[in-house]
Amino acid sequence: MRLISRLFESEDSSRRRRTPRDPKHLDSTDSSTSSPLSEATGSSSLHSSLSLQTLPSVPSLQKISSETFAVTVTVSHSVTSSFKLRERSLPVTCLAVNGGYLFAVSGHEVSIYDRAMCAHLDTFNGHDPFSGSVKSVGFSGDKIFTAHQDGKIGVWKLTAKNGYKQLTTLPTLNDRLRRFALPKNYVQVRRHRKRLWIEHADAVSALAVNNGFVYSVSWDKTLKIWRASDLRCKESIKAHDDAVNAVAVSANGTVYTGSADRRIRVWAKPADSKRHELVATLEKHKSAVNALALNDDGSVLFSGSCDRSILVWEREDNSNYMSVSGALRGHDKAILTLFNVSDLLLSGSADRTVRVWRRGIDGSYSCLAVLSGHTKPVKSLAAVIDSESDGVISIVSGSLDGEVKCWKVSITKPDNSIFKDLTL
């Protein structure tokens, strides 16, 4: 893997990096929660040392005092199912939920499961190993988009007769034919080598879908924007100085990209423009940015990095600019994946654990649970809140050990009522 050395960067190298001290520093510790479950069901201690050597100028946010909440929360969690995607235990590189279905990726194959029963239903792309591993999956209407190691994006559709059928790959042949004759449509990608600007020149690392558009980022340092209706590439942006690892898009169309160059960049399209423009560069991480996630209304951005920290960025007023409000610490190794559901943030790490964080009314956070059981780094997460289960959260984690684990997490008050703000 291109960035494997960055993903599993040693703690010693992190400690050697020094940043100026900020006079504002909040000493904090993880908040412990009681759990009625025994060790056999996955209950684990929430006391963990905070990596304050990392980004010492950024205050920790996971301190919740008795004044913050008048009640103590009880958290219980258990593994409801665990299975391998393939006999050879290839890494699980991506998980995605669409309706009642779970899409799980291992190597170049995409497997579909009934989410409730964890029953295998179908597999597609099983006969095309030449496209390389699938790194991300997105959905727009009845189309499924898959990001591939070979720099292409697969477009699929479920048909009644043939199951999942590949419609085309992006860029489409028609899009290529429209542009190949004009020299202005070519860009330099390497010395003595040019490609059409609509083509990714390296692995497509992540996808995001929003309002009929598909956003793809790549190790070729670019962000590309595709219209899902006609599958045409509308924009290509040289987004970073190194490989781009993550992309997130808010409901209003603001785009966030995270890169191995340690930066997060914010892109927006002015009302009188046809192209996105750079509106902000967020710089606090000291290592490659691996994961991004937005809260439901897009006012808070979470970023995870090889420096072992999750930074929390909050929007200032109504602008697109965000400033860092603090860090969530507790993982011992690189943060590889983030997922936001309702007021909960899930984080998966190279330390082989999943942490569940919850935002308090004062903006601070508590680590409600640490889910352990994987034998290798946790690379992908997905989650939904089951309305049928009175607010119990279903979490799915995928690891480089080739295993998918399905968890049930229940967050209750002392009177055993589910938190009312945990809504779909």
TrEMBL record:
<feature type="repeat" description="WD">
    <location>
        <begin position="282"/>
        <end position="323"/>
    </location>
</feature>
<dbReference type="InterPro" id="IPR015943">
    <property type="entry name" value="WD40/YVTN_repeat-like_dom_sf"/>
</dbReference>
<feature type="repeat" description="WD">
    <location>
        <begin position="237"/>
        <end position="267"/>
    </location>
</feature>
<feature type="region of interest" description="Disordered">
    <location>
        <begin position="1"/>
        <end position="44"/>
    </location>
</feature>
<dbReference type="InterPro" id="IPR001680">
    <property type="entry name" value="WD40_rpt"/>
</dbReference>
<dbReference type="InterPro" id="IPR020472">
    <property type="entry name" value="WD40_PAC1"/>
</dbReference>
<dbReference type="InterPro" id="IPR045182">
    <property type="entry name" value="JINGUBANG-like"/>
</dbReference>
<protein>
    <submittedName>
        <fullName>Protein JINGUBANG</fullName>
    </submittedName>
</protein>
<keyword id="KW-0853">WD repeat</keyword>
<dbReference type="InterPro" id="IPR036322">
    <property type="entry name" value="WD40_repeat_dom_sf"/>
</dbReference>
<feature type="compositionally biased region" description="Low complexity">
    <location>
        <begin position="29"/>
        <end position="44"/>
    </location>
</feature>
<feature type="repeat" description="WD">
    <location>
        <begin position="328"/>
        <end position="357"/>
    </location>
</feature>
<feature type="compositionally biased region" description="Basic and acidic residues">
    <location>
        <begin position="8"/>
        <end position="28"/>
    </location>
</feature>
<keyword id="KW-0677">Repeat</keyword>
<dbReference type="Pfam" id="PF00400">
    <property type="entry name" value="WD40"/>
</dbReference>
